[in-house]
């Protein structure tokens, strides 16, 4: 398991948390703080993000295999898997490939089927494909107040400390050699074909699944949670977080945790 960083706190049944593009394991810190007294909480930094190294292959299937590498390294089975944003897409791919490792699956606002990448994120992906995103992102290091004008900033209801967000997520990516170009490659490689390809496997996925969806997300409308409900036979329910945006697991962790506890306790 080369170059993969992760958080591993607490003891008990394993809960594994997967973030999306442009964030990191730090996204789950408050969720983990609530749960580490009762669970073993593991949060991966996907390749290129946080403390993890970049890789040549940063496609969604390759990111799912990085999660599998971590599970193999730690000997994880009976996992309660939780994903957000692109990490939710990674979790869907992981779930259909490695069903035997999972006890439950929880998806929060994330890429689903043809909404990969979402329409509102496509201008950012287009900049990445043109090789123009890295330089623009670099500006945030010295001018974090501009964060609210970016796609990352749109994922929050409010940003009280934009510098803290930039330092937690953007700086670790850009500080790596070739990190800006790798980030462009990652975004440009997000392709709906990878999600469309797993639809037949999702239709027979019986892993108990919870959907917790913020209703104020400009990227992932709650209609996509309903698509998952209608596609995955293991879905137990959709919980709506009123007004929650993409990163509500970070902003409103105290609202997510009770739903995780309840779901895990009754599964």
From TrEMBL:
Record-annotated AB hydrolase-1 domain positions: 16-251
GO MF annotation terms: catalytic activity
Pfam family, one: Abhydrolase_1
Source superkingdom: Bacteria
Entry GO terms, CC: membrane
Gene3D superfamilies referenced in this protein's UniProt entry, alphabetically: alpha/beta hydrolase
PANTHER family registered for this protein in UniProt: HYDROLASE, PUTATIVE (AFU_ORTHOLOGUE AFUA_2G14860)-RELATED (PTHR43798:SF33), MONOACYLGLYCEROL LIPASE (PTHR43798)
Name of the protein in its database record: AB hydrolase-1 domain-containing protein
